[in-house]
Amino acid sequence: MHIPDGFLDGKTAGVAAALSVCGVGMALRQVKRELPPRKTSLLGLSAAFLFAAQMVNFPILGGTSGHLIGSALITALLGLAPAIVVMTAVLIVQCFLFSDGGVVALGANVFNMAVLGCVTAHFSFHAARRAMPGTRGEVAAVAFAGWCAVVAGAITCAAQLAWSGRLPWTTAFPAMALLHMLIGIGEGLISALVYLAIVRARPDLANTSSPTHAPPWTSVTLGMAVALGIAIFLAPFASTLPDGLESVAQRFGFEHAAVAPPVSAPMPDYEVPGISWSVGATAVAGAAGTVIVFLLALALGRLLVPRKQSATPG
Amino acid sequence: MSWLPHSHFTHSDSIVHRMRPDVKLACAFALILATALAPGHWTAWYAAVFALLTGATLVSRVPLKFVIQRLLLLSPFILAIAAVNAFHPDVRTPWQVVAAKSLLSLLAVLLVTLTTPFGKILQVLRRAKVPALLITTMALMHRYLFVLADESERMQRARLSRTFRKRKGIWWRLSASVVSQLFVRASQRAERIYDAMCARGWK
Prior knowledge:
The complex is a heterodimer of chains A (314) and B (203). In chain A, 70% of the residues lie in helices and 1% in strands. With 314 residues, chain A is mainly α.
């Protein structure tokens, strides 16, 4: 999901970079305020850990193998703001040291995988944790959060590519979303297994993300910033009706003043029902997939954690 | 470490190596920005950038084989774009332009990272007012990345030598336990590193 350079145009890269700077800035401020000094080195080591963990292969069908991406795992282990800082560091080092992902596209990559990934993971983790008590609920929540983070990042990635005019939305969205719904299953499973193993080995390490750790308003502000970002990236494709900006322009009568529409649909000719059903079908599949994965995650939690182990707070 | 030979090249000597890191980074950034965001068919510009970067690569004597390997890693993205273009011929940007832009930008990044030690890059970022916490995190990550990667390799080898039959269900759990041990060890190491940092007068 690392977007290389040349795949984004100026406005998309600029908007994404601005959103990332805001999101990472907020996360850094919160970490500085809240994190005990002893944990400063843990951020760097967690980033190095994520890199090393990505070298451990998990076999999938037919000789292929996958690896951990880790935004949900690290969010569950460290909490939201530290996780954003860690993921950002990972992405910057990957960009400079391994030329993985572009320099101009760095803002977009940080937004998709660090800011959006961790915020999605944080909210889906805490929402899903309420469904089942104890360790079972946590393991299920990590699995669900891993899936959600991967799919959310893939969707905004597709939107950014389409907004830049590099790929048509009707192709990019179904392809990216469906592919990452599959990848997300592996990610959720690996995250849950690793999380459970950590809880069993060192329960104290997995406890830092208790809700009391961060005041809820900071996560809510971050969540709203991310929602704004999603709105910006997805708005041009959300409906075939004239979008909000256009209707405002019409109401105030300055639609002719604009030299060019700020956002032209990537392919106006294709906005016919015959093609855009693929987008609709993918959206429905995504919604159904979310429910199914949530139920699967709960089943996984039950399967992995015996009842009496789950009772101990962990 | 065969999978990451960067550090072998950053300390050799050439005009490109001797350039001031901040000037080099600024030049590379300007070049990438201009290339990645150039509108459409600026063939002459792409050719000029290509000539400049190839010349610099040859002068800096970084091994071409390594550069070409890295460039080839980009090809899945470019093939995907080309495939989409084949089905939707009226996409605004043809795939050749996208390919040229990404290859040139990647070449520029490679040239900078292969001729500049990562610590120097961090110094430039620090002077560019990137928050200190992020710099510290990146510096620690860079320092311990290879240590943990080696540790991960050793743990996997140890696991392999103790697992005689390869069953998939077990395999995932074993790999997960390797990753979890990696995290446990990383956080223990983090504690020790913090003590060492304090002992040397950090903050």
